[in-house]
Amino acid sequence: MKLYYKPGACSLASHIALHESGRPFDIEAVDTVAGRTEGGADYRAMNPKGYVPALRLEDGSILTEGPAILQYIADRHPEAGLAPVPGTLARTRMQEQLNWIGTELHKAFGPLFREGSTEADKAKARINVAGKFDLIEAQLGDGPAWLVADQFSVADAYLFVVANWANFTGIDLVGWPRLAAFVDRSAAHPSAQAAMRAEGLIQ
Q1: Which of 202, 134, 203, 121 is nearest to 169 (CA)?
Q2: Is residue 4 within 8 Å of residue 54, measured between CB atoms?
Q3: Strands (E), 7-143
Q4: Is the pLDDT of residue 142 over 90?
Q5: Cα–Cα distance for residue pair 13/154, rounded to 1 Å
Q6: φ and ψ of 2, to 5 deg
Q7: Could you tell me the sign of the dihedral formed by the alpha carbons of 81, 25, 183, 99, in that order?
Q8: Quick check: 26 and 39 in contact, CB under 8 A?
Q9: Which of 2, 14, 75, 114 matches a 20 to 30 Å C-alpha distance to 50?
Q10: pLDDT of 13-49, one tens digit each?
């Protein structure tokens, strides 16, 4: 398999999951503005949506959308324990988390990265993100270290990547100590370290 990614983008979650799987894979960076891969290929020809991640499967087909890719990786490598067993409430809870992170938290960060956003747009976005962080902080409580079934899952990988954007968008996590601890805990995970190192985000 080959993962098409942009350093530090939401594709980092899929990169982390691939490292967790323990199976070999390739990666290739994408310039989403120019629509070209690092190797010079027309990225939009393989993924007309133009954004990352995209995962080229063994048969050459392309899978898109981060939550779908994360669940595919988890299901292809059940021995890695990246997702609860299908059909269980825990699995549905994990899907609940993935959906919320993707449609609410991830989207809330949009104006903070979008070219052309005004300072007013960004200020409003920070308030919106803060409200989402309040919900996560309450959910984390004083309970398990991870989101579902007290085991690192693809939902944790996704939340880590998106929540960590706070550090690049002028949002101080000091106001959400449980979430800050979650981000630190996730960042120290060996698979996260390996993926971030491969993307040039850490030494």
Answers
A1: 121
A2: yes
A3: 26-31, 36-37, 54-56, 62-64
A4: no
A5: 7
A6: -130, 130
A7: negative
A8: no
A9: 75
A10: 999 999 999 999 999 999 999 999 999 999 999 999 9
User: Which residues, in sequence order, are CB contacts of 139 under 8 Å at separation 6+?
Assistant: 147
Q: What pLDDT digit, counting tens, does each position of 49-65 carry?
A: 999 999 999 999 999 99
Helix (H, G, I), strand (E, B) or coil at 175: helix
Q: How much is the pLDDT for 7? A: 98
User: What integer pLDDT is reported at residue 156 of this predicted model?
Assistant: 98
What does residue 187 show for φ and ψ, rounded to 5 degrees?
-65, -30
Pairing of strands 36-37, 54-56: unpaired
pTM for the complete prediction? Answer: 0.97
Sheet with 54-56, edge to edge strand ranges? 36-37, 26-31, 2-5, 54-56, 62-64
Decide if 149 contacts 84 (C-beta within 8 A).
Answer: yes
Token pair listed for 172 = 């101080």
Asked whether the beta carbons of 18 and 80 are under 8 A apart, the reply is no
CA distance 142 to 198: 33
CA atoms within 13 A on the CB side of 138: 6
Band the pLDDT of 149: cuts 50, 70, 90. Answer: confident
pLDDT(144) > 90? no
Q: For residues 19 and 41, what is the distance between their CA atoms, to the nearest angstrom?
A: 25
Give the tokens for residue 28.
């290739």
